[in-house]
Automatic annotation (TrEMBL):
Keywords (A to Z) from UniProt: Cytoplasm, Transferase
Gene3D superfamilies xref list: Aldolase class I (3.20.20.70)
NCBIfam families in the record: KDO8P_synth, PRK05198.1
Protein name stated in the entry: 3-deoxy-8-phosphooctulonate synthase
Pathway named in the protein's UniProt entry: Carbohydrate biosynthesis; 3-deoxy-D-manno-octulosonate biosynthesis; 3-deoxy-D-manno-octulosonate from D-ribulose 5-phosphate: step 2/3; Bacterial outer membrane biogenesis; lipopolysaccharide biosynthesis
Species in which this protein is naturally found: Flagellimonas eckloniae
Chemical reaction(s) catalysed: D-arabinose 5-phosphate + phosphoenolpyruvate + H2O = 3-deoxy-alpha-D-manno-2-octulosonate-8-phosphate + phosphate
Phylogenetic lineage: Bacteria, Pseudomonadati, Bacteroidota, Flavobacteriia, Flavobacteriales
Catalytic activity, EC: 2.5.1.55
Amino acid sequence: MNLEFIPQIKHTNGDNFFLLAGPCAIEGEEMALRIAEKVVKITETLKIPYVFKGSFKKANRSRIDSFTGIGDEKALKILRKVSETFKVPTITDIHTEQDAAMAADYVDVLQIPAFLVRQTDLVVAAAKTGKVVNLKKGQFMSPESMQHAVKKVTDSGNDQVWITDRGTMFGYQDMVVDFRGIPTMKQYAPVVLDITHSLQQPNQSSGVTGGRPALIGTMARAGIAAGVDGLFMETHFDPKNAKSDGANMLDLGLLEKLLTDLVAIRKVVNSL
């Protein structure tokens, strides 16, 4: 898999997985820089290709009073500052065709949320920016159906596309990852496993999504063993007080040990 086309990405000449990680949402400049600094330090030591993740706005919310962002341009400028400060690429999710062109001026990878991955105009708009497009598999979609989402990108003249599995709805309030889908989707594009959203417990009566963060390590180890190309995770130094998705984020203090273990597992997988 070729990552060299992504500006500023490092450690692409090894056999490691790549990492998309950061807070769910950009809450402010200080928090974004603090998280980025920690993750960059760890990934530099472990030689993991790294892309900083942060949503410049949140459109898929359970309640109208849920946090949606600090302002589009303000958050995008913070993503640019993270990139310039730490010399790393960045990724953010988009929700409208207008978002695609706007965000492409600030970040290196555009992410299509799982709820929106069948929206043809949105996927095509992202593809036509020339940026890498990360397609999150819909919770309602089979692995096989993701080939059509990938084809929308490639038919738009962009062959830089990834698929991220973030689980499939299991009943009304739980998610499950079917690891049989990973080799299937790898036929269409590099595959990333989202090890935090796949542990969400959505549709809670409170209107606040729950999660099972104690299982993040289990999910990550299983993904590496199953042969994923990359991992996606949301992390925060204070998940309980994060303004979005705190219930399923990884505590930043646990990240180094987890990634160290995963690199060791990847070496074993590569040797088989």
